[in-house]
Amino acid sequence: MSYVDLLNAPYSQQIAPASGLGNSGLRNVVGSNASLLDSKKTLDLYRANLKKTTESSVAYEFAIYMVGIAKDIMASGESAETAGINPAELLKEAQAALQRLADKSFPFAQYYLGDGFFSGLFNKGKEDYGRAFPLFVAASKHGHAEAGYRAALCYEYGWGCRRDFQKSVQFYRASAAKAHPGSASRLGVACIRKELGLTDNYREGLKWLKRGVDSADSQYNAAPYELGLLHETGYGADCFKDEAYAAQLFTRSAELGHPEAARRMGEAYEHGLLHCPKDPALSIHFYNIAAQADHEEAMMNLCAWYMVGAEPVLEKDEAEAYEWAKRAADLGLAKAEYACGYFTEMGIGCRRDPLEANVWYVKAADQGDERAKQRLAIIRDAAAGGSGIPDKQAKAPKSPKDKKDCIVM
To answer: Where is the region Disordered (predicted)?
Structure first.
């Protein structure tokens, strides 16, 4: 499929060559031994063969290859002298090549160059929305769906342009019509929530969300989750309540990496919600997906599971429980800060350290956590010679399950 054909294809087929192009692209011009070449020789051969062709696609692939090599060198921490290649000079050469192609209205180069300015790749790490925006617009006008989505975002948030919701919706619609899942999802949510100047468009919103579900991928994974929220409770005459279907949609988003959808499914399998059976293994599985994506609440859910265990699926491990609580606390979650204070004060899963515990309690209390405030009051009372146990705290001992929920939830 040619690059021209790609512009007439749905978003899922408009995938530009990966930055790790490697030597495979050279085999047509230098033969089967291309894989034996090092990066510097590959670059030299590419440059030599570019002089023999006027094909924009070849020049574009070379520019992407140069960016990939530069990124690899920078990520490795290898010096330019050791690598034999200066990554800054390579990025400069790639930028110039992309600019020449963009000036010839090659949309894939326009988009990639715009993305480089937007991220700071082509501007010494500093974002340049002003240069990125017109490139996204130009590429989108040639049918590039991702560029259309990025142009819509720029208009929505005023990145490199004046905020204009009407134009934002225009670009979202054009991109969504090419099955771009991000555009379809955003447009669907905007219609449902009456955002971007849209009113009374819930049927259109459902239409776009359903299209977003059909084309959802790991990068744009929100549409199944958003549609699931509507089916969880029912919405209007056209979206019936169906908790089991909502669970299917949440699962779809979760498997594509949507953190909140994964947390919801972890909760569903822990407590038997959304017509799901209680299943500790699946609960832990989904909580782990969310936690690995830095979802603080899911980290605390895992902490709770490790506090009590779920034999034979999961052994009780207080040290692991503490580690998950600390990860959530480091992200600023108040109840995680309280949990870290309690664990550290009592020596649960970690070395006992009353001073460090006090630091955690103060952090949690500063965010309004009532339990942390109570704990600090108890500590102050004990330090002043009191019992350290206010009357309202003198209650019957809790069961292990209650204790788990009290500490970490």
So the answer is: 385-409
